[in-house]
Amino acid sequence: MSRDKVVADAADAVADVGRGASLAVGGFGLCGIPGVLIHALLERGAGELRVVSNNCGVDYWGLGLLLRAGLIARMTSSYVGENKEFARQYLQGELEVELVPQGTLAERLRAGGSGIPAFYTPAGAGTVIAEGGLAWRHGADGSPAVASPPRETRVFGGREHLLEEGITTDFALVRAAVGDRHGNLRFDSSARNFNPLAAMAGRITVAEVEELVEPGELGPDDVHLPGIFVQRVVPIGADDPHAEKRIERLTVRTAPAVHEGTG
């Protein structure tokens, strides 16, 4: 295998993502999402995708585009509150959803990528997560058609813990600020979020990079994810409309009123 992992374009990079594939997708809200690769999947049209990502984008951007097109069959996420179409599909039984505490989701991805099949965590102990019965998919009458199973528990240090399984997926899609031809990646600030963890979990990891450099240009301390976890690198242009960095919820401070006679 060539050590040069750069592929021609995003379409080539996802050409073998087939119907029913599982995907780990980086990003947090709209920060650090692999928008170019997501759009390439939208154009490819492979359906019944099983996606693991912190959230599912918003109604008209990010993973929300795949959801609206009916290409996602199952989501494993920790937060889904910014997407009305997500709520509609879930409540009407069109989408299967596994909700996972955020820290647990991060560790499940890291564990899967590290070859750890399962681990114990106190998160969710004593709740319905431990008991099972959460509706992963609703039936036509609103009752759970597919429900979460009860979790195996064990006590450590006098505290109950749940057994959680590591996550591995067929593919992972991530976005990095800088990458070299060997797949070493550097992420920008908060865009680091779930990207390294998602990349570790994928058997085939595709990284879209804003800047492509030659091997050796990234210093060892600048590598946030080593190339051993990355199989394909896609350079993207700043002028690509699908690479746009949108704000999920814009909040600005209102300037205080200036009263007459004050400076």
Task: Explain what the structure shows.
- The chain is built from 7 helices and 13 strands.
- With 263 residues, it is α/β, with parallel strands linked by helices.
- The chain has a domain at 8-116 and 165-233: Glutaconate Coenzyme A-transferase, CATH 3.40.1080.
- Strands 1, 2, 3, 4, 10, 11, 12 and 13 form an 8-stranded mixed beta sheet that branches. The chain has a 3-stranded antiparallel beta sheet with strand order 5-9-8.
- The longest helix has 12 residues, at 102-113.
- The termini are far apart.
- GO terms for molecular function: transferase activity.
- Keywords: Transferase.
Helix content: 10-25%
Average the pLDDT over all residues and give the rounded result.
92
Structural class: alpha/beta
CATH class membership of one domain: Alpha Beta
CATH superfamily of one domain: Glutaconate Coenzyme A-transferase
Organism: Streptomyces filamentosus (Streptomyces roseosporus)
GO molecular function: transferase activity
Protein name: CoA transferase subunit A
Pfam family, one: CoA_trans
Task: Produce a short descriptive summary.
This protein is an alpha/beta fold and 263 residues long. It has helices spanning 10-13, 35-44, 63-68, 84-91, 102-113, 128-131, 195-201, and strands at residues 22-25, 49-52, 72-77, 96-99, 118-121, 135-138, 144-147, 153-156, 159-165, 169-180, 185-186, 202-213, 232-235. The longest helix has 12 residues, at 102-113.
